[in-house]
Amino acid sequence: MAPEMSADVRIGPDDIRRRKRGVPIVCLTAYTYPVARLLDDHVDLLLVGDSVAMVLHGHKTTLGASLEMMIAHGQAVMRGSAKACVVVDMPAGSYETSAAQALASARRVIDETGCQAVKLEGGIDVAEQIAAIVAAGIPVMGHIGLQPQSVEKDGGYKIKGRTEENMVALFRDGEAVEKAGAFSLVIEGTVETVATELTRRLSIPTIGIGASADCDGQILVIDDMVGLTVDRVPKFVKEYAELRGVVSDAAARYAAEVRSRAFPGPDHVFPSTSGKDKA
Ligand code: KIV
C-alpha cells in the first residue's frame, strides 16, 4: 500500500547542497506515478533519468529519450511525490548546441513539470550551458564520469579514471561543473579513488553510482535496485529485491487460472442479487 502523500515542504536543491559531508543523500530514479508514490517517503531525491528510454521504453541506449518523453515522466513523478527533490534529466540533443538551446530546454522542463532541478551530462564542455541555466534561476545537477549519452562515441560502457590523463580530465570536469554553479554532481562509473578524491575536492555534494562509498550520496536505477531489469545488470548494482521472479510467477498463475476458468471467481464478479455497484 502506498503511503498517503503529505509533506509540509519538498526537499529542495539548497537542502541537498547543505548535505555536503553530512548524512548520505539517498537518491533513486523514478519514472512513473506509482513508483514515485512508493519511494517518496524513503528518499531525498528522485531522478527522472533519461535511462527511462532503456528501462521503460526498451531503447538500446539513453539516446532514445526525447524532451517530450522526459517531460511526460517528470509530470508523473511530480504527481506521485510530495517530499523528494525531483530532478529531470535533459536528454541528448536538448542542450549541447548552445547555452540558449540548453536554457530553452531547461525552462520547458521546469515550466511543464514543476520539478525542482534539471540534470545534464558533461564537464568543461557544458560549463557554459550550466552557467546559463543557473543564472536564469534553475538549479542544475551535473553528471561526469561514465556518461551514457556518450556511450556510442566512447565505444561502450567504459569505467573512467584508469589513466593519469583521464583522471586529471575528471578533476577538471568536476571543478568546472562546480564553478558553473551546479548544486550537486553525479559521478558514474569511475575508479573508486577518483570519486573519493573528487568528493574531497568539491564543495558541492557528489552522488555516486559505480563510484565510491565516500560520495556524499548514492543513486541507483530503480528497476535495477528491485531486480526488475531483464537485460544486463551492471556490476555496481545491488539488487535489494528480485521482482522478475515475482512478476513472472504471478503472470504464470494468472494464465493458468484464466485457462482453467478458475479466474474470475465469485469474489471478482457482480451477481445480479448483490446490490453493490462499486467496482
Ligand atoms: O539516467 C539515469 O538514470 C542517470 C542515473 C544513472 C544517474 O543518469
TrEMBL record:
Q: Which terms are listed as keywords in the entry?
A: Cytoplasm, Magnesium, Metal-binding, Methyltransferase, Pantothenate biosynthesis, Transferase
Query: How is the co-factor bound, per the entry?
Result: Binds 1 Mg(2+) ion per subunit.
Its EC number is: 2.1.2.11
Sequence positions that bind Mg(2+): 50, 89, 121
Q: Which Gene3D superfamilies match?
A: Phosphoenolpyruvate-binding domains
Catalytic residues as annotated in Swiss-Prot or TrEMBL: 188 (proton acceptor)
The reaction(s) catalysed by this protein are:
(6R)-5,10-methylene-5,6,7,8-tetrahydrofolate + 3-methyl-2-oxobutanoate + H2O = 2-dehydropantoate + (6S)-5,6,7,8-tetrahydrofolate
InterPro entries tied to this protein:
Pantoate_hydroxy_MeTrfase (IPR003700), Pyrv/PenolPyrv_kinase-like_dom (IPR015813), Pyrv_kinase-like_dom_sf (IPR040442)
Q: Name one GO cellular component term.
A: cytoplasm
Q: Where does 3-methyl-2-oxobutanoate bind?
A: 50-51, 89, 119
- Location of this chain's protein in the cell: Cytoplasm
Q: Which cofactor does it need?
A: Mg(2+)
Q: In which pathway does it act?
A: Cofactor biosynthesis; (R)-pantothenate biosynthesis; (R)-pantoate from 3-methyl-2-oxobutanoate: step 1/2
Q: Please, one GO biological process term?
A: pantothenate biosynthetic process
Q: Name one GO molecular function term.
A: magnesium ion binding
Family membership: Belongs to the PanB family.
Subunit and partners? Homodecamer; pentamer of dimers.
**What HAMAP family does this protein's entry cite?**
PanB
Reported function: Catalyzes the reversible reaction in which hydroxymethyl group from 5,10-methylenetetrahydrofolate is transferred onto alpha-ketoisovalerate to form ketopantoate.
Recorded protein name is: 3-methyl-2-oxobutanoate hydroxymethyltransferase
Which species expresses this protein natively?
A: Mesorhizobium waimense
Q: What lineage is this protein's organism placed in?
A: Bacteria, Pseudomonadati, Pseudomonadota, Alphaproteobacteria, Hyphomicrobiales
Name the gene for this chain. Answer: panB
